[in-house]
Amino acid sequence: MNEQRLIRNAMSGDARAERALFDAHVERIWRVVFRMTGDEALSEDLVQDAFVRAFDRLDSFRGDASFGTWLHAIAVSVTLNGLQQRRRRRDHEAEREDMTTLPAAAPAGRPDLRHDLDRAVASLDDPHRCVFVMHDLEGFTHEEIAAAMGTPVGTAKARLSRARARLRAWFDAGDAAVLELES
C-alpha cells in the first residue's frame, strides 16, 4: 500500500495504517531525536510524543512536503520543547537545592574519537545541535531543516556554520570550555 493511501486510512482511524506509517518512519525519527538529546530514555519518550502529535494532527498534513519531512518537523519541535522543559526543570531543581557550583568531572584520559564527537555535539546549544545533526549526520537539506525548525534558510545555514566552528574549536582546544565561552 502506498504512503498516501496509508495516510488517508490513518486519518479514518485505521490502526493498521497508523502502525505501518509508524514502522516506516520510527527508526529515522528515533535517530534524529537521540542525536539531539543524547539520552536514550528521553528519546523514546519524545519519539512517542512526536508520533502521538503527528497522528492527532494528521488532518493538517497537506502534502506540500513529503510525509517524512512533515513528521521530522514535528519530531524536531517536540524534541526542542522537551529539551527546554527538561532544562527548566533542572534549573528549578538546582535553585531549590541552592546549588551554586557543580563539581568538575575528573579527567578519564583521552576517549576514542566517537566519544569525543558525541560529547562535542552534546555540548552545542539546542538550535545549533539540531541543525548540525539534521544536516551533517542525517543528510537533510537546508530547506528541509529550515521548514522543520520554522526558520529562514539563511538562519539554518548560519547555525550550521557556527556549530561547525564551535566543534572545530572544541577539538582544537581539547575540551568543552571553548563552547561554554562562546555560548
Tell me what you see in this structure.
With 183 residues, the chain is mainly alpha-helical. It is globular and about 55 Å long. It has helices at 3-11, 15-37, 40-56, 67-96, 113-123, 126-137, 142-149, 153-173, 177-182. The model is unreliable at 98-111 and 176-183 (pLDDT under 50). The chain has nine helices and no strands. The N and C termini lie far apart (48 Å).
In short:
With 183 residues, the chain is mainly alpha-helical. The protein is built from 9 helices and no strands.
Features:
183 residues; mainly alpha; 9 helices; globular; disordered C terminus
End-to-end separation in angstroms reads: 48 Å
Mean pLDDT equals 81
Order of helices and strands: HHHHHHHHH
Radius of gyration: 19 Å
- Our count of helices gives 9
- Low-pLDDT regions: 98-111, 176-183
- What would you call the structural class? mainly alpha
Which percent range fits the helix content?
over 70%
Tally of DSSP β-strands: 0
**How does the major sheet shape up?**
none
Assembly context of the chains: single chain
Global outline: globular
> How much strand?
under 5%
Annotate the secondary structure layout.
Elements lengths: L2 H9 L3 H23 L2 H17 L10 H30 L16 H11 L2 H12 L4 H8 L3 H21 L3 H6 L1
Helix pairs in contact: 1-2, 2-3, 2-4, 3-4, 4-7, 5-8, 6-8, 7-8
